[in-house]
Write a structure and sequence with these properties.
Layout lengths: L1 H34 L8 E7 L3 E21 L5 E6 L6 E2 L4 E5 L2 H36 L5 H34 L1 E3 L4 E3 L9 E2 L7 E16 H6 L11 E5 L11 E5 L9 E8 L11 E18 L4 E3 L2 E9 L5 E7 L1 E6 L2 E6 L6 E3 L12 E5 L5
Parallel strand pairs: 1-20
Antiparallel strand pairs: 1-19, 2-9, 2-13, 3-5, 3-8, 4-7, 5-6, 7-9, 9-12, 10-13, 11-12, 13-18, 14-15, 15-16, 17-18
Helix pairs in contact: 2-3
Protein backbone atom coordinates (compact mmCIF):
# COMPACT_ATOMS: atom_id res chain seq x y z
CA UNK A 1 0.00 0.00 0.00
CA UNK A 2 2.84 2.35 0.76
CA UNK A 3 4.31 1.67 -2.67
CA UNK A 4 0.97 2.46 -4.31
CA UNK A 5 0.63 5.72 -2.41
CA UNK A 6 4.14 6.78 -3.43
CA UNK A 7 3.34 5.87 -7.06
CA UNK A 8 0.16 7.95 -7.13
CA UNK A 9 1.87 10.82 -5.38
CA UNK A 10 4.64 10.90 -8.05
CA UNK A 11 2.09 10.71 -10.86
CA UNK A 12 0.13 13.62 -9.37
CA UNK A 13 3.24 15.77 -9.26
CA UNK A 14 4.06 14.97 -12.90
CA UNK A 15 0.55 15.87 -14.07
CA UNK A 16 0.67 19.08 -12.08
CA UNK A 17 3.99 20.08 -13.64
CA UNK A 18 2.69 19.31 -17.17
CA UNK A 19 -0.43 21.40 -16.64
CA UNK A 20 1.59 24.32 -15.28
CA UNK A 21 4.00 24.13 -18.24
CA UNK A 22 1.12 24.11 -20.71
CA UNK A 23 -0.47 27.13 -19.07
CA UNK A 24 2.88 28.98 -19.09
CA UNK A 25 3.54 28.29 -22.78
CA UNK A 26 0.01 29.34 -23.68
CA UNK A 27 0.38 32.58 -21.77
CA UNK A 28 3.72 33.35 -23.44
CA UNK A 29 2.25 32.55 -26.86
CA UNK A 30 -0.61 34.98 -26.30
CA UNK A 31 1.79 37.65 -25.10
CA UNK A 32 4.07 37.23 -28.14
CA UNK A 33 1.10 37.17 -30.49
CA UNK A 34 -0.15 40.35 -28.94
CA UNK A 35 3.26 42.05 -29.39
CA UNK A 36 3.86 40.87 -33.05
CA UNK A 37 3.31 43.59 -35.74
CA UNK A 38 0.48 43.20 -38.22
CA UNK A 39 2.46 42.82 -41.47
CA UNK A 40 -0.65 42.74 -43.55
CA UNK A 41 -1.65 46.16 -42.24
CA UNK A 42 1.64 47.98 -43.03
CA UNK A 43 1.40 51.08 -45.29
CA UNK A 44 4.42 51.82 -47.51
CA UNK A 45 5.69 55.44 -47.31
CA UNK A 46 6.37 56.78 -50.82
CA UNK A 47 7.53 60.09 -52.27
CA UNK A 48 5.15 61.52 -54.86
CA UNK A 49 5.26 64.28 -57.49
CA UNK A 50 2.06 66.21 -58.14
CA UNK A 51 2.44 66.63 -61.92
CA UNK A 52 1.60 69.86 -63.70
CA UNK A 53 1.37 70.34 -67.47
CA UNK A 54 4.22 72.24 -69.08
CA UNK A 55 5.73 73.03 -72.47
CA UNK A 56 8.96 71.56 -73.82
CA UNK A 57 10.87 71.97 -77.06
CA UNK A 58 10.20 69.44 -79.83
CA UNK A 59 13.78 68.30 -80.14
CA UNK A 60 16.14 65.47 -80.95
CA UNK A 61 19.82 64.77 -80.36
CA UNK A 62 22.39 63.14 -82.61
CA UNK A 63 26.11 62.41 -82.59
CA UNK A 64 27.88 65.08 -84.65
CA UNK A 65 31.38 65.88 -85.84
CA UNK A 66 32.98 69.26 -86.44
CA UNK A 67 34.83 70.30 -89.58
CA UNK A 68 36.37 73.48 -90.89
CA UNK A 69 34.07 75.74 -92.86
CA UNK A 70 36.89 75.91 -95.41
CA UNK A 71 39.79 73.49 -95.64
CA UNK A 72 42.57 74.52 -98.01
CA UNK A 73 45.56 72.48 -99.16
CA UNK A 74 48.66 74.65 -99.37
CA UNK A 75 50.66 73.70 -102.49
CA UNK A 76 53.44 75.71 -104.16
CA UNK A 77 52.64 77.32 -107.51
CA UNK A 78 56.32 77.09 -108.53
CA UNK A 79 58.86 74.37 -107.92
CA UNK A 80 62.22 74.64 -106.21
CA UNK A 81 64.14 74.20 -102.99
CA UNK A 82 62.06 74.84 -99.85
CA UNK A 83 64.22 77.24 -97.87
CA UNK A 84 62.14 78.11 -94.83
CA UNK A 85 58.93 77.44 -92.94
CA UNK A 86 57.53 80.68 -91.48
CA UNK A 87 54.68 79.50 -89.23
CA UNK A 88 54.09 77.33 -86.18
CA UNK A 89 52.22 74.09 -86.72
CA UNK A 90 48.72 74.30 -85.26
CA UNK A 91 48.90 78.07 -84.89
CA UNK A 92 46.31 80.55 -86.08
CA UNK A 93 46.99 81.87 -89.58
CA UNK A 94 45.68 85.06 -91.21
CA UNK A 95 44.76 85.37 -94.86
CA UNK A 96 47.82 86.49 -96.86
CA UNK A 97 50.30 85.46 -94.16
CA UNK A 98 53.60 84.01 -95.43
CA UNK A 99 53.99 80.32 -94.66
CA UNK A 100 56.91 79.08 -96.79
CA UNK A 101 59.83 80.50 -98.75
CA UNK A 102 61.03 78.76 -101.90
CA UNK A 103 64.49 79.60 -103.26
CA UNK A 104 63.86 82.79 -105.28
CA UNK A 105 67.24 83.06 -107.07
CA UNK A 106 66.29 81.11 -110.24
CA UNK A 107 63.16 83.22 -110.57
CA UNK A 108 65.04 86.46 -110.00
CA UNK A 109 67.36 85.52 -112.85
CA UNK A 110 64.40 84.60 -115.06
CA UNK A 111 62.87 88.02 -114.35
CA UNK A 112 66.09 89.80 -115.30
CA UNK A 113 66.24 87.84 -118.56
CA UNK A 114 62.63 88.69 -119.33
CA UNK A 115 63.26 92.38 -118.69
CA UNK A 116 66.32 92.31 -120.97
CA UNK A 117 64.31 90.65 -123.72
CA UNK A 118 61.64 93.27 -123.25
CA UNK A 119 64.16 96.09 -123.65
CA UNK A 120 65.53 94.55 -126.85
CA UNK A 121 62.07 94.08 -128.26
CA UNK A 122 61.17 97.64 -127.31
CA UNK A 123 64.13 98.87 -129.39
CA UNK A 124 63.13 96.73 -132.37
CA UNK A 125 59.56 97.98 -132.17
CA UNK A 126 60.71 101.61 -132.16
CA UNK A 127 62.99 100.95 -135.13
CA UNK A 128 60.10 99.38 -137.03
CA UNK A 129 57.98 102.45 -136.40
CA UNK A 130 60.71 104.76 -137.68
CA UNK A 131 61.32 102.58 -140.72
CA UNK A 132 57.65 102.52 -141.61
CA UNK A 133 57.48 106.34 -141.34
CA UNK A 134 60.57 106.81 -143.56
CA UNK A 135 59.29 104.51 -146.28
CA UNK A 136 55.93 106.20 -146.21
CA UNK A 137 57.59 109.46 -147.41
CA UNK A 138 59.51 107.63 -150.13
CA UNK A 139 56.34 105.95 -151.30
CA UNK A 140 54.72 109.35 -151.75
CA UNK A 141 57.55 110.39 -154.10
CA UNK A 142 57.38 106.98 -155.80
CA UNK A 143 61.02 106.31 -154.85
CA UNK A 144 60.09 102.81 -153.58
CA UNK A 145 57.53 100.25 -154.57
CA UNK A 146 54.30 99.57 -152.77
CA UNK A 147 55.60 96.12 -151.82
CA UNK A 148 58.56 97.58 -149.94
CA UNK A 149 56.26 99.81 -147.95
CA UNK A 150 53.86 96.94 -147.18
CA UNK A 151 56.77 94.88 -145.84
CA UNK A 152 57.75 97.71 -143.53
CA UNK A 153 54.18 97.99 -142.28
CA UNK A 154 54.06 94.25 -141.53
CA UNK A 155 57.37 94.39 -139.66
CA UNK A 156 56.02 97.25 -137.57
CA UNK A 157 52.92 95.19 -136.62
CA UNK A 158 55.03 92.11 -135.86
CA UNK A 159 57.38 94.15 -133.70
CA UNK A 160 54.41 95.53 -131.75
CA UNK A 161 53.08 91.99 -131.18
CA UNK A 162 56.50 90.77 -130.07
CA UNK A 163 56.67 93.70 -127.68
CA UNK A 164 53.40 92.65 -126.06
CA UNK A 165 54.73 89.08 -125.73
CA UNK A 166 57.90 90.37 -124.06
CA UNK A 167 55.80 92.43 -121.64
CA UNK A 168 53.72 89.34 -120.79
CA UNK A 169 56.91 87.35 -120.19
CA UNK A 170 58.07 89.97 -117.71
CA UNK A 171 54.72 89.82 -115.92
CA UNK A 172 54.89 86.02 -115.79
CA UNK A 173 58.43 86.14 -114.39
CA UNK A 174 57.29 88.63 -111.73
CA UNK A 175 54.40 86.36 -110.75
CA UNK A 176 56.65 83.29 -110.54
CA UNK A 177 59.04 85.24 -108.33
CA UNK A 178 56.16 86.29 -106.06
CA UNK A 179 54.97 82.67 -105.87
CA UNK A 180 58.23 81.72 -104.15
CA UNK A 181 56.63 83.33 -101.08
CA UNK A 182 53.85 80.82 -100.30
CA UNK A 183 50.95 82.45 -98.45
CA UNK A 184 47.64 81.29 -96.98
CA UNK A 185 44.53 82.24 -98.96
CA UNK A 186 42.28 82.09 -95.88
CA UNK A 187 42.39 82.71 -92.15
CA UNK A 188 42.30 79.60 -89.99
CA UNK A 189 44.42 77.07 -88.14
CA UNK A 190 47.48 75.57 -89.78
CA UNK A 191 48.11 71.86 -90.08
CA UNK A 192 51.21 69.67 -89.89
CA UNK A 193 54.26 70.48 -92.02
CA UNK A 194 54.66 67.75 -94.65
CA UNK A 195 58.18 68.55 -95.97
CA UNK A 196 61.46 69.31 -94.29
CA UNK A 197 63.36 72.47 -95.09
CA UNK A 198 65.78 71.92 -97.98
CA UNK A 199 63.45 69.51 -99.78
CA UNK A 200 62.71 69.88 -103.49
CA UNK A 201 59.03 70.58 -104.04
CA UNK A 202 57.09 70.43 -107.30
CA UNK A 203 54.71 73.08 -108.57
CA UNK A 204 51.00 72.42 -107.88
CA UNK A 205 51.58 68.84 -106.66
CA UNK A 206 53.57 68.88 -103.41
CA UNK A 207 51.23 69.21 -100.41
CA UNK A 208 53.03 71.43 -97.91
CA UNK A 209 50.30 71.70 -95.25
CA UNK A 210 46.62 72.51 -94.77
CA UNK A 211 44.72 75.45 -93.31
CA UNK A 212 41.24 75.02 -91.83
CA UNK A 213 38.89 77.93 -91.28
CA UNK A 214 37.26 77.22 -87.92
CA UNK A 215 35.31 80.41 -87.34
CA UNK A 216 32.66 79.80 -88.32
CA UNK A 217 32.95 76.05 -87.87
CA UNK A 218 30.63 73.49 -89.40
CA UNK A 219 29.01 70.54 -87.63
CA UNK A 220 27.73 67.54 -89.59
CA UNK A 221 25.13 65.11 -88.22
CA UNK A 222 22.20 62.99 -89.35
CA UNK A 223 18.80 62.00 -87.97
CA UNK A 224 16.88 58.78 -88.58
CA UNK A 225 13.68 58.73 -90.59
CA UNK A 226 11.62 58.22 -87.42
CA UNK A 227 13.32 61.14 -85.67
CA UNK A 228 12.71 63.39 -88.66
CA UNK A 229 9.04 62.38 -88.61
CA UNK A 230 8.78 63.10 -84.87
CA UNK A 231 10.22 66.56 -85.48
CA UNK A 232 7.55 67.38 -88.05
CA UNK A 233 8.91 66.03 -91.32
CA UNK A 234 11.65 67.12 -93.69
CA UNK A 235 14.12 69.42 -91.92
CA UNK A 236 15.65 72.58 -93.36
CA UNK A 237 16.81 76.03 -92.28
CA UNK A 238 13.22 77.27 -91.98
CA UNK A 239 11.74 74.38 -90.00
CA UNK A 240 14.65 74.08 -87.53
CA UNK A 241 14.26 76.83 -84.93
CA UNK A 242 17.48 76.25 -82.97
CA UNK A 243 20.62 74.12 -82.98
CA UNK A 244 22.68 73.61 -79.82
CA UNK A 245 25.83 71.64 -79.18
CA UNK A 246 26.52 69.39 -76.19
CA UNK A 247 30.27 69.18 -75.61
CA UNK A 248 32.08 65.96 -74.59
CA UNK A 249 32.11 67.07 -70.93
CA UNK A 250 28.30 67.41 -70.95
CA UNK A 251 28.24 71.21 -70.97
CA UNK A 252 26.36 73.20 -73.59
CA UNK A 253 28.26 75.29 -76.14
CA UNK A 254 27.43 78.96 -75.60
CA UNK A 255 26.85 79.81 -79.27
CA UNK A 256 23.72 78.71 -81.12
CA UNK A 257 23.98 77.45 -84.68
CA UNK A 258 22.08 77.76 -87.92
CA UNK A 259 21.32 75.02 -90.43
CA UNK A 260 23.26 75.77 -93.64
CA UNK A 261 22.68 72.46 -95.42
CA UNK A 262 19.96 69.81 -95.38
CA UNK A 263 19.77 66.84 -97.72
CA UNK A 264 16.75 66.90 -100.00
CA UNK A 265 16.02 63.21 -99.41
CA UNK A 266 16.49 60.36 -96.95
CA UNK A 267 19.64 58.34 -97.58
CA UNK A 268 18.31 55.00 -98.89
CA UNK A 269 21.27 53.05 -97.47
CA UNK A 270 21.33 54.57 -93.97
CA UNK A 271 17.73 55.73 -93.60
CA UNK A 272 18.85 59.14 -92.37
CA UNK A 273 18.69 62.78 -93.41
CA UNK A 274 22.07 64.50 -93.56
CA UNK A 275 22.29 67.95 -91.95
CA UNK A 276 24.96 70.57 -91.36
CA UNK A 277 24.98 73.59 -89.07
CA UNK A 278 27.29 76.59 -88.78
CA UNK A 279 28.56 77.94 -85.42
CA UNK A 280 30.63 80.98 -84.52
CA UNK A 281 33.93 79.86 -83.00
CA UNK A 282 36.04 82.97 -82.55
CA UNK A 283 37.72 81.64 -79.38
CA UNK A 284 38.63 78.36 -81.15
CA UNK A 285 36.96 76.27 -78.45
CA UNK A 286 35.86 73.80 -81.12
CA UNK A 287 38.42 72.09 -83.34
CA UNK A 288 37.89 70.19 -86.61
CA UNK A 289 37.27 66.48 -86.16
CA UNK A 290 35.81 66.81 -82.65
CA UNK A 291 32.84 64.61 -81.69
CA UNK A 292 29.93 66.42 -80.02
CA UNK A 293 26.15 66.04 -79.78
CA UNK A 294 23.81 68.26 -81.77
CA UNK A 295 20.38 69.07 -80.35
CA UNK A 296 17.89 70.57 -82.77
CA UNK A 297 14.43 71.94 -81.98
CA UNK A 298 11.59 72.57 -84.40
CA UNK A 299 9.05 74.08 -82.00
CA UNK A 300 7.38 73.46 -78.63
CA UNK A 301 4.99 70.79 -77.35
CA UNK A 302 2.41 71.93 -74.78
CA UNK A 303 0.37 69.97 -72.23
CA UNK A 304 3.08 67.43 -71.40
CA UNK A 305 4.47 66.28 -68.07
CA UNK A 306 8.09 65.94 -66.97
CA UNK A 307 8.99 63.02 -64.71
CA UNK A 308 12.33 61.77 -63.39
CA UNK A 309 13.49 58.87 -65.51
CA UNK A 310 13.55 56.64 -62.41
CA UNK A 311 9.80 57.17 -61.92
CA UNK A 312 8.91 55.69 -65.32
CA UNK A 313 9.01 51.88 -65.41
CA UNK A 314 8.88 49.47 -68.33
CA UNK A 315 6.69 46.38 -68.47
CA UNK A 316 5.44 43.88 -71.04
CA UNK A 317 2.84 46.39 -72.26
CA UNK A 318 5.25 49.33 -72.44
CA UNK A 319 6.04 52.17 -70.07
CA UNK A 320 3.95 52.87 -66.94
CA UNK A 321 3.99 54.75 -63.65
CA UNK A 322 2.51 54.21 -60.20
CA UNK A 323 0.03 56.87 -59.09
CA UNK A 324 -1.07 57.29 -55.46
CA UNK A 325 -4.86 57.59 -55.61
CA UNK A 326 -7.88 56.92 -53.39
CA UNK A 327 -9.53 53.51 -53.72
CA UNK A 328 -13.27 52.78 -53.25
CA UNK A 329 -12.72 51.91 -49.60
CA UNK A 330 -11.08 55.29 -49.00
CA UNK A 331 -7.51 54.00 -48.74
CA UNK A 332 -4.62 55.53 -50.72
CA UNK A 333 -3.23 52.81 -52.97
CA UNK A 334 -0.69 52.50 -55.79
CA UNK A 335 -2.46 52.39 -59.15
CA UNK A 336 -0.79 51.50 -62.47
CA UNK A 337 -1.09 54.12 -65.23
CA UNK A 338 0.25 53.21 -68.70
CA UNK A 339 1.97 56.25 -70.25
CA UNK A 340 3.49 57.34 -73.54
CA UNK A 341 6.72 59.29 -73.71
CA UNK A 342 8.20 61.51 -76.41
CA UNK A 343 11.88 61.46 -75.60
CA UNK A 344 13.82 63.03 -72.78
CA UNK A 345 14.45 66.56 -71.58
CA UNK A 346 17.56 66.89 -69.40
CA UNK A 347 17.18 64.01 -66.87
CA UNK A 348 13.40 63.69 -67.27
CA UNK A 349 11.01 61.80 -69.53
CA UNK A 350 8.49 63.83 -71.50
CA UNK A 351 5.09 62.18 -70.89
CA UNK A 352 2.41 62.93 -73.51
CA UNK A 353 -0.38 60.49 -72.51
CA UNK A 354 -1.59 58.62 -69.43
CA UNK A 355 -1.56 61.40 -66.82
CA UNK A 356 -3.70 64.36 -65.85
CA UNK A 357 -2.99 67.50 -63.88
CA UNK A 358 -2.55 66.88 -60.16
CA UNK A 359 -1.83 63.13 -60.41
CA UNK A 360 0.52 62.09 -57.62
CA UNK A 361 3.16 59.98 -59.35
CA UNK A 362 5.20 57.76 -57.04
CA UNK A 363 8.90 58.50 -57.51
CA UNK A 364 10.70 56.42 -54.85
CA UNK A 365 10.46 53.06 -53.05
CA UNK A 366 9.26 51.70 -56.39
CA UNK A 367 10.98 48.37 -55.88
CA UNK A 368 8.64 47.72 -52.91
CA UNK A 369 5.46 49.11 -54.43
CA UNK A 370 2.84 46.66 -55.70
CA UNK A 371 -0.31 47.43 -57.71
CA UNK A 372 -3.21 48.07 -55.37
CA UNK A 373 -1.04 48.11 -52.23
CA UNK A 374 -1.75 50.84 -49.64
CA UNK A 375 0.77 53.67 -49.62
CA UNK A 376 1.47 56.70 -47.48
CA UNK A 377 2.42 59.53 -49.86
CA UNK A 378 4.68 62.45 -49.01
CA UNK A 379 6.31 65.07 -51.27
CA UNK A 380 9.24 63.69 -53.24
CA UNK A 381 12.56 65.42 -52.54
CA UNK A 382 14.24 66.06 -55.89
CA UNK A 383 18.00 65.55 -55.70
CA UNK A 384 20.01 68.68 -56.54
Amino acid sequence: MRLAKKHYAGLSKSLLMAVLATLFVGACGKKEAGNAPNMAGMVMPVGVIAVQPTSVPISAEAVAQTEGAKEVEIRPRVGGILLKRMYEEGAAIKAGQSMFQIDPVPYQIALQQAKAALAAQQARAEQAVREEARLHGLLASQSISQREYDNATSEKAAAAANLQQAQANVREAELNLSYTNVTSPISGVSGRFQFSEGALVAANTSLLTTVSQISPIWVRFSLSDSEVKALGGHLDAKSVKSVNLILPDGSEYKQKGQINFSASQIDPKLGTQQLRASFENSDHQLLPGQFVRARIATGTRSGVYLLPQTAVLTGDQGKFVFVAEKAKDGKIVAAVHPVKEAGSQAQSWVITEGLKEGDQVIADNLIKVRPGAPVNPHPFAVAK
